[in-house]
Amino acid sequence: MFFYNQWPIGLAVSSTGRIFVDYTRGTYEYTVGEVVNTTAEQAYPSQALQVPVSLLFNDTSGMNFATGNSSGFISVQALIITATTASRPETLWVLDTGRPNFLDGTTPYSFPGGPKLVAINLSNDAIYKTYTFPALVVYPVSYMNDVRIDLNPDISAEGVAYIVDSSNEGRNGVIILDLATGNSFRQLDNHPSTLNVYSFVPSYQGRPFYAIGPGAQQFGHLTGGIDGVQLSPAGDVLYFSPVTSDYLYSIETQYLRENTSPQSTQVCGNNVKNLGQRGGDANGFEGDSNGLIYMLMPGSNAIFMYDPQQAQTLPFVRDLRIIWPDSASVAEDGYIYVTINQLPYMPGLNNGTDLRTYPGAILRAKLPHNGSKIVSGQKSDTK
User: Fold this and answer.
1) Which pLDDT score is estimated for 376?
2) Is pTM beyond 0.85 here?
3) How far apart are CA 305 and CA 317, in angstroms?
4) Do the beta carbons of residue 114 and residue 69 sit within 8 Å?
5) Which residues of the chain have pLDDT under 70?
6) What Cα–Cα distance (Å) separates residue 379 from each residue in 63, 84, 174, 232, 279?
7) Among 257, 317, 321, 324, CA closest to 292
8) Residues paired with residue 230 on neighbouring β-strands, in sequence order
9) How many other CB atoms are found less than 10 A from the CB of residue 284?
């Protein structure tokens, strides 16, 4: 699949092969789309549910805030599909940051109601649930980057969502959302495992990379905290890392969900495991039924995989067309699908000059060892 008008970010592939994509909002007319052929998409579920570009800002606040619209999509960053269960249809989960990004580098603060997680029934393309967050869980400077869903009824009547806050302006951490009650809270706030690495200098296409914002007088660095995230097939372990780190971390999810005692935050932080370096910085994660953790490696034009049984990172696929693999989706057909969007060459990182060359793309590769989508009551899909 090729993209000639919008650069793709997140994606998810349904059990019937439908492909959904999101686009970080700026001047785009829609932020969630469905692929209709190899070169075209259309707004999903409809154009009416996309907040118009002219209404993305909250003009009544007197400050640089985005709209607090809780019923329309503002700027979607991640998509994920959970399989049909006894109590829930096959669902597309849409993670809306509530913070549009404009080509001039402007990113307004989020306003309560704007950041949200939306559940869409794929059998009729109708929204059936919307979760919003209090201001002390999703801050004005938060940037909800990715989400994983565990529908195991043993941990919550309707399951739990784990959302990562990768903001390069505020506190990084993990947001835990109870899908039954709608209650949410934060864990691992400003924990070393979730933070941006200071003065990080990656290498892309064989060249050291420095960020230069529009009109900047000096270079800066690529920033961003916890980004890649993935659940184990049983949902008992969460793997994660900052986008600016060479290290992979994990934590048992029981510690993330516990917040009833004064020691919960400390105990959670104490149980993060450093799994070591993996051979470069990674962006989005995915996982398969074999328990392999796929990590998108922009500096290597590759996808690596971490094998918990071998306790090491292994090569999976490398291709020079993989210029910033942003998000991935493992589908029931046994393939992993990956969006390519050339992010390091966007105007906001290159003194206002767009160095990207269309088209963007979705590539796919067959999973090893007959791996497939995780469908046993918990998560599966995307970035």
Assistant:
1) 56
2) yes
3) 9
4) yes
5) 59-62, 103-105, 376-383
6) 38, 11, 16, 9, 27
7) 317
8) 239
9) 29
What token pair was written down for 106? 């402007």
Written in H, E and C, the secondary structure of the chain is CEECCCCCCCEEECCCCCEEEECCCCCCCCCEEEEEECCEEEECCCHHHECCHHHCECCCCCCCEECCCCCCECCEEEEEEECCCCCCCCEEEEEECCCCCCCCCCCCECCCCCCEEEEEECCCCEEEEEEECCCCCCCCCCCEEEEEEECCCCCCCCCEEEEEECCCCCCCEEEEEECCCCCEEEECCCCHHHCCCCCCCCEECCEECCEECCCCCCCECCCCCEEEEEECCCCCEEEEEECCCCEEEEEEHHHHHCCCCCCHHHHHHHCCEEEEECCCCCCCEEECCCCCEEEEEHHHCEEEEEECCCCEEEEEEECCCCCCEEEEEECCCCEEEEEECCHHHCHHHECCCCCCCCCEEEEEEECHHHCCCCCCCECCCCC
Asked if residue 160 lies in contact with residue 183, where contact means CB atoms within 8 angstroms, the answer is: no
pLDDT of residue 348: 80
- In the numeric block, the tokens 């929204």 are attached to 127
Question: How many Cβ atoms sit within 10 Å of the Cβ of residue 256?
Answer: 21
Q: Which two tokens stand for residue 135?
A: 């201001």
Query: Looking at residue 383, what is its pLDDT?
Result: 35
Cα atoms found within 13 Å of the Cα of residue 260, Cβ hemisphere only: 3
